[in-house]
Design a protein that fits this description.
It is a single chain. With 84 residues, the protein is an alpha/beta fold. It has one domain (5-83). It contains 2 helices and 6 strands, in the order βαββαβββ. It has helices at 8-12, 30-38; strands at 5-6, 19-23, 27-28, 42-46, 68-74, 77-83. The strands form 3 sheets. Strands 1-3 form a two-stranded parallel sheet. The chain has a two-stranded parallel sheet with strand order 2-4. The protein has a two-stranded antiparallel sheet with strand order 5-6. The model has no long low-confidence stretch (mean pLDDT 80).
């Protein structure tokens, strides 16, 4: 089973007031939630959609290898990176 994880380090890397969009089911540590609250960072769960990172439309299929992936959203653009 693959897990996604948000830690304090994840939150520290963001600008205060940022919005962090995470895939549904992402594990977020209590310390990360506390720090996000202190820094005014909003955490928003999103449905998993790897196709969005490639500029594809809803319903398009993208084959990705199994593994852990990080979804990053900046300026309305999605970037998907594999965590190794």
């Amino acid at each position: 089973m693959s897990h996604r994880l948000v830690t304090e380090a994840t939150i520290r890397a963001l600008e205060p007031g940022a919005i962090l969009k995470v895939l549904e089911g992402t594990l977020i540590t209590p310390a990360a939630r506390d720090l996000a609250s202190l820094r005014g960072i909003r955490i928003e769960p999103q449905a998993a959609d790897p196709a969005a990172s490639r500029g594809l439309r809803d319903g398009d299929r993208v084959d990705l290898p199994d593994g852990e992936w990080l979804l990053e959203v900046r300026d309305g653009r999605v970037r998907l990176r594999r965590i190794e």
